[in-house]
């Protein structure tokens, strides 16, 4: 895989409401290139919304989000900008059930202008990277939860993103598998020199990150606070 | 993309099958009706060219060509016209054969070209003095008639003198009586249904038609099958009914596909959201949904074409008109069925695809 420098993230005065529910309030945040940031907070504190806004999955009501100076949502082709800059890993792996592990990774490469052979080659290389080369032709139903999440990580890396956003990547896994997936994420971040933003309740994520931010009621707190899960 | 469309349709095989089946029934109805109307046109062509004639003279403004009534004396006036080589009268008795209500009995002048053009395949010409009739080979085969058999027409028994073949479906599915006998049987002395005409050398049918209509007010000259269909109110009604059915099939099919695909979108919001996050543009995701709608419609249309071919024959049988209408499948008829099927997919896929383009990735992912 080609290693590219991580992206800088700039969030300035971002607010987002869904109906009458205010999810984020005047959030500002800077993430340096190659930095690993953990975002924690109670359920409903706006963590996932912040991650979605950073990744250009939704438009902020106010404020600006930029990745290396590019505002993904306002680009003429936001999907292309997302593909070029960002990789996503979610709590649920969201693999397409009828496609093999390899094909699930290839799905992310459709639209990148690659020929089928090149897509296939790159997908296999990524599966090897996450230790699943021997499971390339298996369907998601034939994979364990941890294996499925590793396929999801491979898919997130398919377009060589400079920013990897992970939303509760270990939320659906047992502690042992969670450790393995976190090992993988942070190892890849180091080897590929990506910027990594991880939303998680898991204290071990904070321990691995360069910095931990806490969201409470849609606002970033200056210093981490102790949270009770649930 | 095609592989994903295929797997998505296979993954929901029951839904795909039922949606395709709905479209297939619509397309089959259209193909069957089109083959039926094509059969009607062929019948009309035979009707216009009865006995090898080039045009037929009918009473003007009748609801159906068979309802035409003309005075027999008109034959002599037609015969005298310069553009006419020969004219011979016909009296059609519809639903006159007891054993086959769809068979037509032709009352024809034994000396006219209509009778002369019949090729006898068995027996002999009928005697005008006796109650004798010629039957077509198709009717003879269906009713197991041989020379010497008896056939009941309008309640009277006739002896089959001979069996003929003309090459025209409803002539061969019917019987021929001497005109005078037919007039007595139908209680229509000195009346005929129409006069069939063979033109003089060099005369053009369209020009001759105009001259004849001008010279004989109250008549209508039919020179082509389409004209015969237009003259018939029933045929016009059928053509309009088919158009209405095509439009209804299109609307119902499109709504069905749109509904199925819209439901599919609701169920697959997570998948749609995921595709957006990995960089699929809204247009590409919409193409996937749209492609699935079109694919299921093409599948349904293909099955519909097959069902339609079978249905055409069943329709003719159900209507009891197999004696004079033979369903005719044409490439254009099948093409129209296929076009309607594809149109259903295109129309039905537009709304769901549009909905996808309006969905933000986060909203789609939130449903998971």
What does the model show?
The complex is a heterodimer of chains A (230) and B (368). Chain A is of the alpha/beta class. Helix content of chain A is 32%, strand content 24%. Chain A has seven helices and nine strands, in the order E-E-E-H-E-H-E-H-H-H-E-H-E-H-E-E. In chain A, strands 5-6-7-3-8-9 form a six-stranded mixed sheet. A three-stranded antiparallel sheet of chain A has the order 2-1-4. In chain A, helix 3 (101-107) runs parallel beside helix 5 (145-157) and helix 5 packs parallel to helix 6. The N and C termini of chain A lie far apart (39 Å). In chain A, 51% of the residues are buried. Helix content of chain B is 57%, strand content 17%. In chain B, the strands form two sheets. In chain B, strands 1, 3, 4, 5, 6, 7, 8, 9, 11 and 12 form a ten-stranded mixed sheet that branches. In chain B, helix 2 (13-48) packs antiparallel against helix 10 (233-267) and helix 10 (233-267) runs antiparallel to helix 12. Chain B is elongated. At the A-B interface, helix 2 of A face helix 1, helix 11 and helix 14 of B.
Q: Nutshell version of this structure?
A:
Chain A is of the alpha/beta class. Chain A has helices at residues 47-54, 78-85, 101-107, 116-129, 145-157, 175-192, 203-208; strands spanning 9-18, 21-31, 36-41, 62-67, 86-89, 163-167, 195-199, 211-216, 219-221.
Hey, which two chains have the biggest interface? A-B, 30 and 26 residues
Number of strands of chain B: 12
Number of helices of chain A: 7
Mean residue pLDDT of chain B: 85
Overall form of chain B: elongated
Characterize the biggest β-sheet of chain B. Answer: 10 strands, mixed
Order of helices and strands of chain A: EEEHEHEHHHEHEHEE
Helix content of chain A: 25-40%
- Classify the beta-strand content of chain A into a percent band: 15-25%
Proportion of residues in helical segments of chain B: 55-70%
User: What can be said about the biggest beta sheet of chain A?
Assistant: 6 strands, mixed
């Amino acid at each position: 895989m080609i290693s590219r420098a991580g992206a800088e993230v700039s969030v300035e005065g971002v607010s987002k409401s869904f109906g009458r529910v205010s999810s984020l309030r005047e959030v500002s945040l800077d993430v340096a290139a190659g930095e690993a940031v953990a975002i924690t907070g109670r359920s409903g504190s706006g963590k996932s919304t912040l991650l979605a806004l950073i990744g250009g999955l939704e438009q902020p009501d106010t404020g600006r989000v930029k990745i290396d100076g590019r505002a993904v949502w306002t680009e003429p082709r936001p999907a292309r900008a997302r593909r070029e800059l960002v990789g996503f890993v979610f709590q649920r792996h969201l693999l397409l059930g009828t496609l093999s592990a390899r094909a699930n990774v290839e799905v992310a490469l459709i639209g990148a202008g690659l020929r089928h052979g090149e897509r296939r080659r790159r997908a296999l290389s990524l599966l090897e990277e996450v230790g699943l080369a021997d499971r390339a032709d298996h369907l998601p139903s034939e994979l364990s939860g941890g294996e499925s999440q590793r396929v999801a990580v491979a898919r997130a890396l398919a377009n060589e993103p400079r920013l990897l956003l992970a939303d509760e990547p270990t939320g659906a896994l047992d502690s042992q598998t969670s450790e393995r997936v976190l090992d993988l994420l942070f190892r890849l971040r180091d080897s590929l020199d990506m910027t990594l933003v991880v939303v998680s309740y898991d204290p071990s994520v904070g321990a691995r990150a360069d910095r931990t931010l806490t969201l409470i009621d849609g606002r970033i707190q200056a210093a981490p606070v102790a949270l009770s899960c649930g | 993309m095609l592989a994903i469309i295929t797997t998505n349709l296979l993954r929901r095989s029951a839904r795909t099958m039922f949606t395709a089946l709905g479209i297939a029934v619509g397309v089959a109805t259209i193909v069957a009706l089109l083959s039926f109307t094509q059969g009607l046109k062929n019948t009309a062509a035979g009707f216009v060219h009865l006995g090898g004639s080039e045009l037929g003279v009918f009473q003007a403004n009748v609801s159906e060509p068979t309802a035409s009534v003309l005075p027999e004396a008109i034959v002599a006036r037609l015969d005298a016209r310069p553009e006419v080589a020969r004219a011979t009268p016909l009296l059609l008795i519809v639903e006159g054969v007891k054993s086959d209500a769809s068979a037509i009995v032709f009352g024809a002048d034994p000396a006219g070209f209509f009778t002369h053009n019949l090729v006898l395949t068995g027996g002999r010409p009928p005697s005008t003095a006796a109650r004798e009739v010629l039957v077509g080979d198709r009717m003879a085969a269906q009713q197991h008639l041989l020379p010497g058999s008896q056939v009941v027409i309008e309640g009277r028994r006739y002896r089959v003198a001979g069996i003929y073949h003309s090459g025209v479906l409803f002539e061969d599915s019917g019987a021929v009586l001497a005109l005078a006998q037919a007039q007595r049987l139908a209680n229509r002395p000195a009346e005929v249904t129409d006069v069939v005409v063979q033109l003089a050398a060099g005369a053009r049918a369209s020009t001759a038609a105009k001259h004849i209509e001008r010279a004989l007010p109250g008549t209508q000259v039919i020179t082509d099958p389409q004209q015969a269909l237009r003259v018939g109110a029933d045929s016009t009604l059928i053509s309009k009914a088919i158009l209405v059915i095509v439009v209804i099939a299109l609307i119902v099919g499109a709504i069905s596909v749109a509904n199925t695909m819209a439901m599919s979108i609701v169920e697959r919001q997570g998948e749609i959201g995921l595709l957006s996050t990995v960089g699929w543009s809204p247009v590409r995701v919409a193409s996937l949904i749209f492609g699935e709608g079109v694919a299921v419609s093409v599948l349904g249309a293909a099955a519909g074409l097959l069902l339609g071919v079978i249905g055409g024959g069943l329709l003719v049988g159900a209507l009891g008109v197999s004696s004079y209408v033979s369903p005719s499948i044409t490439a254009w008829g099948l093409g129209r069925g296929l076009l309607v099927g594809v149109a259903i997919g295109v129309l039905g896929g537009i709304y769901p695809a549009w909905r996808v383009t309006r969905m933000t990735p986060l909203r789609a992912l939130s449903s998971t």
